[in-house]
Amino acid sequence: MAEFVIERTVPLPLDEAWRRVTDWPRHGRVVPFTRVTAHGRSVRARTGVGPVGFLDPMEITVWSPPGDDGEGGICRLEKRGRVVLGRAELEVRPGPGGRARVLWREEVRLRFLPSFLDGLLRIAGRYVFGRALDRLLRWE
């Protein structure tokens, strides 16, 4: 299993940072070759080009938005696909100077990828999702 954490501190209020990182269709606009849809606690990401690709169905198992009391928020997604397994967590916390600190934690396994390639998957995941997080937080 490849595990990684991406962290950003941004000049946004907690609720705005939360809104941006949990806007699922927006994920599909910033992750290459991916479309994302959501219905209730179900999130479905399809990555591919034309008929070649895979589905990454996820279930939201924790949903706790930031409160009016200044506390942070967390969303946990369990990956339940035939290809992608694991979980992701998106967390928004108070940061220095009224900024928002955003963490994206990922524990991911690709079913057909041998475990000795987890290091490469970790590097690729940090790169792809780091860029996606930057775009989610920057792009209005």
TrEMBL record:
Domain of life the protein comes from: Bacteria
Protein name: SRPBCC family protein
The organism of origin for this protein: Streptomyces chilikensis
Lineage: Bacteria, Bacillati, Actinomycetota, Actinomycetes, Kitasatosporales
